[in-house]
Amino acid sequence: MSQREKDAAGKFKCTVRERAMFEAGVKMGTIYHQFVGVPVDGSNVDILEKSIEKGILVQPYVKSVKVAIDRSQFRKKADEYSYVSLTGNMLDVVLQVQIDDVVVTAEMRYDEGLKYPLMYISHVTE
Question: Out of 1, 51, 78, 110, which could bridge 89 as a Cys pair, Cβ 3.0 to 4.6 Å?
Answer without folding.
Answer: 110
